[in-house]
Design brief:
The complex is a heterodimer of chains A (464) and B (486). Chain A is of the alpha+beta class and 464 residues long. Chain A has ten helices and 19 strands. In chain A, helix 1 crosses helix 2 and helix 4 runs parallel beside helix 5 (201-214). Chain A is globular and about 70 Å long. With 486 residues, chain B is an alpha+beta fold. Chain B has two domains: 3-232, PmbA/TldD superfamily (PmbA/TldD fold, 2-Layer Sandwich); 239-484, no CATH class. Chain B has ten helices and 23 strands. Chain B has helices at residues 3-15, 73-91, 123-137, 209-214, 220-232, 247-259, 264-268, 337-342, 377-382, 433-438; strands spanning 22-38, 41-58, 63-68, 107-111, 144-162, 167-184, 190-195, 203-205, 239-245, 297-300, 321-326, 329-330, 351-352, 361-362, 367-369, 386-398, 404-416, 419-424, 427-432, 440-443, 450-459, 464-472, 475-484. In chain B, strands 1, 2, 3, 4, 5, 6, 7 and 8 form an eight-stranded mixed sheet that branches. In chain B, strand 17 and strand 18 form a beta hairpin. The chains are: A alpha+beta (464), B alpha+beta (486). At the A-B interface, strand 1, strand 2, strand 3, helix 2 and helix 4 of A face strand 1, strand 2, strand 3, helix 2 and helix 3 of B. Strand 3 of chain A pairs parallel with strand 2 (41-58) of chain B.
Chain lengths: 464, 486
């Protein structure tokens, strides 16, 4: 179903259900995922992801149902059962009701490419065949995934709010590996775009092969404090965690956010701008729907300006409680995870450096980090202390040049304090899809940070 | 036509084809509820429902998977055709033939043992049970700034039919409940304290009867007292020390440093995207000294009440109990029919899918540390001259081979001359997996052994979450690098 068909269904259900206060969000994603590993296309999947999120209010009493059953009768029953639950639950302080037909329709950035919508299993295989061969020809082992997806969103409320949006999403990621699963050198490449024909598949594959080759025979390096240049793939891992601990109203209310009680104060370096930018019309950086699960139009929200905490993100209920307006940041729940409030397009920078090489040239002795692995930002959220490891390429920089590959290292440091020591970012930025739903991305440049703390080494290869 | 007939029709449409070596159709339907109360108001009152079928086909060389939310015969036959189309497309570039040894047909039914059906308990009763402790956690001290209590119930029914004649039905009831409080000091720094452990590790497979045993109200005073005390506690000092871990932290240590690296798909290289590889390579089977002789870790999908308990996995392999680490020696993997065949072994029955719209992949089941003979936790403390006891995970991180890990916990106590002395805040420890488990010199006895349930173990690409279980008693590890996470 496309978005208009979903909206028609949603309106029909609302008009037939007979409940006075209902919000119905429908989302259908059809994903084709061609996953390859050990040089073979071992998992090739067509994944249907239908989802309805029904909320019914009875005054200030609110209940919700999340279901994958999108036929009319199932949705009507979901509304009825949710209405019964709403009459039994305590009141939600500050609940402002569902969105009404108050805001005019806004122009949405283009998010749809017919080439992606039309992609077949055979086409995905055809696009990947040269990749498998190229990695093999390099004497390396390939792994990764090519995804083509079509996503339709629609929202209707009994207050007359009606929204719909069609999008496509294509992404490619590739690893070139020295061994299939036993460690050793590795290189990564990846790219996301709404148009599958615009994916830089060959270029990113070459990059993965090059980094893997350069990563062979890594030397040992003691843990310690090093100046570091991180690629966008590494920076976005850190920003994704910052996003989950810092910018949502629940974390502000809870007091665990580094922004809590500090709006208007400097929390990081003067060079740092962080913005929620969901409406970017740059096809390299813009993804996702222009409205949130409550129907609020998303917009640009400057979160940190020149290092100063400026704003946080709200849904309608938290905004009502905290005396402000929603930023369009209500996140869709999914089976197994709660709804929340947060960013879907957090963006850092850009900076002024013309290239990553320019950042590296400004380092006397330090590290060039391609990616990070298993970052965790729950150590001390008020300072945004995070830990994690390097992965898929870590190199020693000496006298402004890459000297040699080194084994993976563990870091533990405060991201906000680290960014305060940043003195360089690239102009070019990259959007990296996040783990969470709603087609979220994090956008970042490559970043140079002075004095980043590495507190441990990992082994590059298993031993007995 | 019944749904069962639709499953059979989809399977029949594939079984007749010469290039189909194996096919399975898996119906999954479920419902659930997620309730959370924060600071005296409902934070989440969500019902969940799902229904659909996934179809996996092994073509002449490789696999295809497709799915449908519509379980009519026409839709499932169409999904079967899509799965086969994918398998054929992928086979065109395959250089090897995926091995897939035959499995005797299975028939039967599995169902969670439930004394009291949680879905018969009124929602208002459940919310009231959460509201009281959530309010009490924040009462009496302005530094107690935020509290939350939660409860989750999920019921899933699976029906698997395969081209080998397997026809099994399973019904699972999963639950979870707990609470936590945040205290904030004058310096603005928060401390969290949770019960029974951190959110996401408090799951089980059972009925409402588990809620009474949990007794949230009975733990409110201790939890808030500890949260407040942490605000002014000294930082955990740095240096190599004896480390004592309470049961739920041992469970997470097993999860990250034994469960994941013994997944054979990781070890062979199938999970590089997202998860990574494994330091536990096939050539090390029977050779790698993973831990001290006290360490026996068992994969057991028959454990009563475990999140990883079932009758059959999602490719029809019966549940079982097999050691992964036997008295310190690495002896087996969590495996599937295809991956085990690559090593000339039999599957250990661990293939599971998150739902109807995901293919099964190797997942942990209940991966548990056998109890030892060190008595109770207090006996272990009494037998420790100098060390730190840590409890309740706060952060976790481990490298892509599962060697270098770092965990921080909510709380710690210094242990001196056999007694808990001062409270310590922001404790953290780090290590290298085989060295760490090799330093294990005491494990508490069966009386302290508890089966914990993780609800959101993430793996696969696109990511799939899964319920997995880990049983453990508290344990002691020598010369561990500990310190402060801040």
């Amino acid at each position: 179903m496309n978005a208009d068909e979903l909206l028609t269904l949603a309106r029909d259900v609302l008009s037939s259900a007979g409940e006075p206060e209902v919000e119905l969000y429908l989302r259908v994603a059809e994903r084709g995922c061609a996953r390859f590993a050990i040089g073979e296309l071992g998992q090739h999947m067509q994944l249907s992801e239908p989802q309805a999120a029904v909320r019914v209010a009875h005054g200030l009493q609110v209940a919700e149902t999340v279901t994958t059953k999108l036929d009319r009768e199932a949705l009507l029953e979901a509304v009825r059962s949710t209405a019964r639950a709403a009459r039994l639950v305590p009141q939600v302080e500050g609940f402002p009701g569902f969105t009404r037909d108050e805001e005019p329709e806004r122009a949405s950035p283009v998010r749809h490419a017919q080439s992606t919508a039309n992609a077949t299993p055979e086409e995905r295989v055809e696009r990947l065949a040269p990749v498998l061969q190229a990695v093999r020809d390099a004497g390396l082992v390939g792994a990764g995934m090519l995804e083509t997806a079509v996503v339709a969103h629609a929202l209707a409320t009994t207050g007359g709010c009606a929204r719909s949006h069609d999008a496509t999403f294509a992404s490619y990621k590739v690893w070139a590996l020295e061994t299939p699963g036993a460690g050793g050198a590795a290189g990564y490449g990846g790219h996301a775009h709404r148009d599958v024909t615009a994916l830089r598949i060959a270029e990113e594959t070459e990059r993965a092969v090059r980094v893997c080759r350069d990563s062979r025979d890594p030397g040992s390096l003691e843990a310690g404090t090093y100046d570091v240049v991180m690629e966008p793939e590494a920076v976005t891992e850190l920003l994704e965690w910052l996003s989950s601990i810092a910018f949502g109203a629940p974390e502000i209310e809870q007091g665990s956010s580094p922004m809590a009680g500090r709006l208007g104060e400097r929390i990081t370096g003067e060079a740092i701008d962080l913005v929620e930018d969901p409406l970017s019309d740059d096809p390299e950086l813009g993804f996702g729907a222009p409205f949130d699960r409550e129907g609020t139009w998303r917009g640009r929200v400057p979160l940190v300006e020149r290092g100063v905490a400026r704003a946080v993100l709200y849904d309608r209920t938290y905004a009502s409680r905290m005396g402000t307006t929603s930023t369009g940041s209500a996140l869709l729940p999914s089976p197994g995870s709660a709804a929340g409030v947060g960013a879907t397009a957090l963006a850092l920078g850009p900076g002024e450096a013309a290239s990553v090489g320019e950042l590296i040239a400004g380092v006397k002795r330090g590290l060039y980090v391609c990616r990070l692995h298993y970052v965790n930002g729950l150590l001390e959220p008020r300072r945004a202390v995070m830990t994690g490891l390097t992965r898929d390429g870590c190199f020693l920089i000496e006298d402004g040049k890459i000297a040699r590959a080194v084994g993976n290292l563990r870091f533990t440091d405060s991201l906000l304090e680290g960014l305060a020591r940043s003195d360089g970012m690239t102009r070019e930025r990259k959007a990296i899809p996040t783990w969470w739903g709603d087609a979220g991305v994090v956008v970042a440049p490559a970043v140079r940070i002075r004095g980043w703390r590495f507190n441990g080494r990992s082994q590059q290869r298993p031993d007995m | 036509m019944t749904t069962e007939a639709s499953l059979a029709a989809a399977l029949d449409s594939l079984r007749r084809l010469p290039d189909v070596r194996y096919a399975e159709v898996r119906l999954v339907e479920g419902h659930g509820e997620r309730l959370a109360v924060r600071g005296g108001r409902p934070e989440q009152v969500t019902a969940e429902a799902t229904r659909g079928a996934g179809i996996r086909v092994l073509g002449s060389r490789t696999w295809g998977f497709a799915c449908s939310a519509d379980t009519s015969e026409a839709s499932l036959v169409a999904a079967a055709a899509r799965a086969l189309q994918i398998a054929r497309a992928s086979s065109s570039v395959a250089r090897t033939v995926a091995p897939f040894p035959e499995q005797p047909a299975q028939r039967g039914r599995y169902e969670t043992r439930v004394a009291v059906d949680p879905f018969t308990i009124p929602i208002e009763q459940k919310l009231a049970l959460l509201d009281a402790p959530a309010r009490a956690l924040c009462a009496g001290d302005a530094r107690l700034v935020s509290s939350e209590a939660w409860m989750e119930w999920t019921r899933v029914r699976k029906h698997l039919v395969t081209s080998e004649g397997t026809d099994v039905t399973q019904a699972f009831t999963y639950g979870a409940s707990g609470m936590h409080v945040f205290a904030r000091g004058d310096d603005g720094v928060s401390q969290r304290r949770s019960y029974p452990t951190y959110q996401g590790s408090d799951g089980f497979q059972a009925g409402w009867e588990r809620i009474a045993a949990l007794d949230l109200p009975g733990h409110v005073d201790r939890v808030k007292d500890e949260a407040l005390a942490l605000l002014t506690a000294p930082l955990c000092p740095e240096g190599p020390r004896s480390l004592l871990l309470e049961s739920s932290q041992v469970a997470l240590q097993i999860h990250e440093s034994c469960g994941h690296p013994t997944e054979l798909d990781r070890a062979l290289g199938s999970e590089i995207s997202l998860a990574g590889g494994s330091f536990m390579q096939p050539r090390m089977l029977g050779q790698l000294r993973y831990g001290s002789p006290l360490v026996t870790i068992v994969a057991d999908s028959t454990s009563e009440g475990g999140n990883g308990t079932f009758g059959w996995d999602d490719e029809g392999v019966p549940a079982g109990r097999r050691p992964l680490v036997d008295r310190g020696l690495f002896v087996d993997y969590l495996s599937s029919r295809e991956t085990a065949a690559a090593l000339g072994r039999a599957s250990t029955g661990t293939m599971r899918a998150e739902g109807w719209n995901r293919p099964p992949i190797i997942r942990m089941i209940n991966v548990s540390l056998d109890p030892g003979d060190a008595g109770s936790l207090e006996d272990l403390v009494a037998a420790t001259d100098d060390g730190v006891l840590m409890a309740t995970d706060k952060s976790w991180s481990i490298d892509d081979l599962r060697l270098n890990f770092q965990f921080s916990c909510e709380i710690a106590w210094e242990v001196k001359k056999g007694r808990r002395t001062r409270l310590l805040r922001d404790p953290c420890y780090t290590g290298i997996t085989p060295r760490f488990w090799g330093s294990c010199d005491a494990i508490c006895g069966p009386g302290e052994w508890r089966l914990w349930g993780l609800d959101q173990c993430g793996k696969g690409d696109p990511i799939q979450t899964m319920q997995v279980g880990h049983g453990a008693s508290p344990a002691r590890f020598r010369d561990v690098a500990i310190g402060s996470a801040s």
